[in-house]
Amino acid sequence: MPTPTGSGGAAGPTAADDVEALAGRAAASSRAFAQTAPRDRARALVAVGDALAAAADELIDLAMAETGLARPRLTGELKRTVVQLKLFAETIVDGAYLDARIDPADPEFALGARPDLRRTLVPLGPVLNYAGSNFPFAFSVAGGDTAAALAAGCPVIVKGHPGHPQLSIRTAAIVAEALAVAGMPDGVFQLALGQEAGVALLKDDRIRAGSFTGSLRAGRFLADVAAARPRPIPFFGELGSVNPVFVFPSAAAGAGAAATIGAGFAASISGSAGQLCTKPGFLFVPAESAAELTRAVASGVAGVPEQRMLNPQIASGFVARQHTVLGADGVSTVVDGGTRLDGDEQGWVTPTVASTTVAALSAAGSAVLDEAFGPLSVVVAYDDVSELAALAAELFPGNLTSTVFLGEGDESALVHEFVSVLSETSGRVLFGGWPTGVAVTPAMQHGGPYPATTSDSGTSVGSAAITRFLRAVTYQDAPQPLLPPQLRDDNPWNVPQTISPPGASATWGALV
Prior knowledge:
Strand content: 15-25%
Strand order of the largest sheet: 11-14-15-9-8-16-17
Helix content: 25-40%
Low-confidence stretches: 1-9
CATH topology of the largest domain: Aldehyde Dehydrogenase, Chain A, domain 1
């Protein structure tokens, strides 16, 4: 794998000639990689995870220096990255993800003679993955998108994030070496650096899909580039989410409820300096409990020490966003979080909490409703619980998460309607918990309607993430030697096959 470096060994942008070479190598390796057996790719993913774990001390030191994130947070994140890789190994090892379906020829088919039809999922081809800044392991070079695409059998080019270039280079070297030792084809994993390289690769016809984690502005720009190509490609972007939390009167009324909810909310908005895509940006509370709940939130953030933000650009953006929110009509400052710049122009912050009403929030519009990437959240007082469903649909049409706090046994028709609305506007609906801390597990959905993501049916966390990088192909009356292994009668990969035997159509509907 070519290492993109500038003079003196410092990370520099990938040159135009190298961009061409990267795309060429990815394309050249695509067919051979797609034809590797699932079990072999699974072993390679485990090898990558083991190699990253073995280099943990070195990688965590680099990540701390470049991102300012604390060692405990990065230690947990690197472990998550290793677990992700092994989850995808587990997902593909038996070949069930290939969804092999076989309909043998059937002269007695209910609608007339049926040919031999065999359908399976195949890799899309080379994937360009834009690394995120706030998870330098789990959403970066060896993160979930990379793991999912490699598991699917797609070569990956990672466009490294400028916020942690040295970590990106070292991680990429470890991944590339582990894949090579595991016998994967040359060119299945490569790294590029620099904005121009990232755009040039996205426009290259040899790239067949893009994945992205970052800002709404950058993500939308790239999504438009992908859509405007002579041959458009799928672009799976995670863009922006404010993750509202709604407290019903039944939840606020219990003894100690305000303290518990306030402390949980404070912890969720302040973790990792609020630089999490699932950070709750709004807490809706009943007007009659607003004062108590707001005091509880303020108390929860009071002892949070200042934390460094990921890089100067994010820090300056947060300061500007903080100024806009706190300056909006009808918004009151509850806790005026501090911000300071050190000698390296890095920003250090403590949490900011504001309060407002539903009417003022609606009037303020995007000035307050847009995502604040950092430790800033707004407590919103509402008058009538019956207005929450319409409010959620109107103000929050697309989010990664929405959360509802209910009292025990509160399952009225109004609650059912509200939960239905949240399921239409959110990728994950939580009850009585906090959205930060995304479990890496098969049932996780980390996606949502726009602007949370550009493809609301996909997820970037959990085993279902692999489906983004696969497409279906049906073979009709194909000779056995020309079929992919998973569709042959001898089934050399020993994968699950769903077979619709001749004559079955005569009984369709009998079980209804």
